[in-house]
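Title: [Solved] DYW domain-containing protein 3D structure

Original question kept below for reference.
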Amino acid sequence: MLKPSKNEKKIISEEPLLEVTPIGDPSSGISAQIEKLVFHKRYHEALDFFELLECEGECQLDSSTYDALITACIGLRSIRGVKRVHNHMVSSGLELDQYLWNRVLSMHVKCRMMLDARVVFDDMPERNSVSWNTMIGGLVDLGDFVEAFRLFFVMWEENSAADSRIFATMIRACSGLEVISLGQQLHCCALKMGERDNRFISCALIDMYSKCGSIEDAQLVFNKMPEKTTVGWNTIIAGYALHGYSEEALCMYYEMRDAGVKMDHFTFSIIIRVCTRLASLEHAKQAHAGLVRHGFGLDIVANTALVDFYIKWGRIEDARNVFERMPQKNVISWNALIGGYGNHGRGIEAVELFERMVREGMMPNHVTFLAVLSACRYSGLSDCGWEIFESMSREFKVKPRAMHYACMIELLGREGLLDEAFALIRDAPFRPTINMWAALLTACRVHKNFELGKFAAEKLYGMEPEKLSNYVMLLNIYNSSGKQDEAAAVVQTLKRKGLRIKPACTWIEIKKQPHAFLSGDKCHVQTKEIYQKVDELMLEVSKHGYVMGRKTLLPDVDEPEQRLPHYHSEKLAISFGLISTSSSTSLQLVQSHRICDDCHNAIKLIAMITKREIVVRDASRFHRFKNGTCSCGDYW
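Solution (posted by the thread starter after getting help):
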């Protein structure tokens, strides 16, 4: 008898049901041990026993033991285990029945070994619906939609009696390809086969029509479902959210609630993301309460969405509280909070959180590095940023991408090192991207380097000839450097192309109700009081050094708005917030465009004289105004 291994001793101590049997009786002893271990989900130990068996040489296993080993390989996603088990099956000469053939195929597919899976599939003496579903489903799951359709057409020619599951799978493939005509043909086939009331096909169709841009057809399919399941509700809500119909998504959520349908963590994750887009704190709080009430208070996906919401609404402490209460965190959870601290100008805390993440054994990915490097650039942490950038490939084997280079270019730009920033673009190991040139252009605008700024703007102009902000930036540079002829040529180009930016809009939520303002807006019922407050504020801030900014277009501010600087949408929203809330209430605003220089300077002083904290989320980042300063450090 061989001496029991450490694993065997562990089995004896942990699980009295599993007794170590001499290896001399492999047909019953080892097989029974493997099957028991798999039954108790102790997959590593099961494969260890199998390795002992392999060392013995000619040992025969029966179908039930191979079935158990396949379960272990799938559970561990062990490619090495798949190869060992499959090779042993082949070398043993075992005759596989249809069930075991399908299990072997499933093992390869679920371990993402699609080339080997195709060999197994082609070698199968017979294929049933399970075989086709497994192979085609694996291709769809991996995004190989074209090959999935090729195989589907082969199956259709061999045996047109496709089941509902394969139709649902192929409808998913149509979603991936975003080809609605194929989805419509499959829809017709499913109806002809009497699958009108099949909930799996209905949910797949709702998803397909949504992703292919026809939310109306998705709603029709949903309306015809005889039993509207949780998945059905989630899918139609997600469809509305996907197309930006946030209010409609929220209405569907309340219909779902009123219908008494059981909600799951995906329901709350979707709604929290909808609330993020709507900037609706009250609805998000209700979703948060529902999340806890329905028993999903510890769910990673939903809580990560909640962290993201609180961050984007400017409530960083609430986001941190949710994060710290999570019993398990994945890399997305860490990335959300690190990025949140960075966006709010709290770079030191973002870096500390990154270091804690590494200490706790969570491996950072390229998104993590983007979050922490962005935090460094927003807060001007140059030395720290370069140290992290250089550690990416050296310590974490993550190759820096263009977005990481853009962060470093902005870090150099903040310090006024424009030549070094340009050199980093020039020497990058790939073709410079739009974000890299945009980072240099921002630095040139702030530091008034018109020649290099013109060069960067022209690069952007060539890469995105239809993007308005590139023309506006170039126009600013020409105006600032006194080149009126060149500026006039840019204006003519804008008119010829018919490019004009939409008016900026600012939202603020007061007493659970959202209020929207445009520049010079006089539609609000309290317009008179709002304008009086604006005039009062402008008079007060002028006593503290405020001077109306000179006429300079920013990427997101059109010329008519420049003629109304006192009554820009941000100032109107802030004035309304001040007259509608107590003196201790901070104000939270969302701006559709990029905040202009004049408003930025004015809001710093408004925050100081009113002793309020004012948080503005604009198109570029968060601005937290307090005591006369902004978290962006006047660089945005």
